[in-house]
């Protein structure tokens, strides 16, 4: 389940923590049971529990304003805003995110102040670096594309660790209407389909 906004604000004090601190480590997996009548009853009980705990992706369209776009989120999102530090610069950022078990889906938007000396390109580079540091990540795939005419897009896939467990990160970085945007999904290798559902749903408004 998604943490409420108050818990998020209490935990998140720096840019890298905007995402990773929402991921909780789950307990160990149950051991296999011997096939006796009693264990079969236990197995059915366990099966019911596992079914009830299976991740549910309740996709819904969410507006991200500014800069005017929409994205599909797998659960009701929480939102928060912070002035955060990127190197020697600071930037106002707003994050919209949803969580399904350990899986995190977030869109973070920052408005570029042209008088601050922080360019969109530099901000995006530092946002990417911060996310890679956050999971002690190694880039395994990087591609350049266009999200829309005139909107350059960097697509990133990285492997790393969160809460002492291996994770994959799928991230898109781009600039739109004077804002830098980072869309990130963090999960396991089996979560790539959900990550692509999230990222490929990004739509920019004219």
Give a brief description.
The longest helix is centred in the N-terminal third of the chain and has 17 residues, at 37-53.
Features:
disordered N terminus; 3-stranded antiparallel β-sheet; 206 residues; 7-stranded antiparallel β-sheet; globular; 5 helices; alpha+beta
What does this protein look like?
This protein has 206 residues and is an alpha+beta fold. 25% of the residues lie in helices and 42% in strands. It contains 5 helices and 10 strands, in the order H-H-H-E-E-E-E-E-H-E-E-E-E-H-E. The chain has helices at 5-11, 17-20, 37-53, 120-134, 192-199; strands at residues 60-64, 69-73, 78-86, 89-100, 103-111, 138-148, 151-162, 165-176, 179-187, 203-204. The strands form 2 sheets. Strands 3-4-5-9-8-7-6 form a 7-stranded antiparallel β-sheet, with helices on both faces. A 3-stranded antiparallel β-sheet has the order 1-2-10. A hairpin with a 2-residue loop joins strand 3 and strand 4 (89-100). The longest helix is centred in the N-terminal third of the chain and has 17 residues, at 37-53. The protein is globular.
Using only C-alpha atoms, the radius of gyration works out to 19 Å
- As laid out across the biggest beta sheet, the strand order is 3-4-5-9-8-7-6
Report the sheet with the most strands, covering strand number, pairing sense and barrel closure: 7 strands, antiparallel
Oligomer: single chain
Mean pLDDT: 81
Total number of strands = 10
SSE order, one letter for each helix or strand:
HHHEEEEEHEEEEHE
């Amino acid at each position: 389940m998604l943490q409420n906004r108050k818990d998020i604000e209490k935990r998140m004090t720096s840019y890298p923590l905007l995402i990773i601190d929402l991921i909780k480590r789950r307990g160990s997996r149950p051991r296999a049971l011997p096939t006796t009548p009693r264990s079969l009853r236990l197995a059915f009980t366990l099966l019911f529990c596992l079914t009830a705990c299976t991740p549910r992706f309740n996709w819904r369209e969410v507006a991200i304003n500014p800069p005017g776009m929409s994205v599909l989120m797998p659960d009701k999102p929480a939102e928060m805003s912070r002035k955060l530090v990127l190197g020697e610069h600071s930037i106002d950022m707003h994050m919209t995110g949803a969580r399904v078990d350990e899986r995190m889906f977030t869109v973070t938007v920052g408005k570029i102040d042209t008088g601050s000396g922080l360019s969109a390109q530099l901000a995006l580079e530092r946002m990417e670096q911060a996310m890679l540091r956050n999971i002690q990540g190694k880039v395994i795939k990087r591609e350049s594309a266009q999200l829309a005419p005139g909107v350059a897009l960097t697509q990133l896939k990285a492997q790393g660790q969160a809460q002492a467990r291996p994770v994959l990160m799928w991230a898109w970085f781009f600039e739109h209407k004077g804002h830098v945007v980072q869309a990130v999904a963090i999960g396991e290798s089996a979560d790539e389909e959900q990550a692509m559902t999230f990222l490929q749903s990004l739509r920019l408004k004219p």
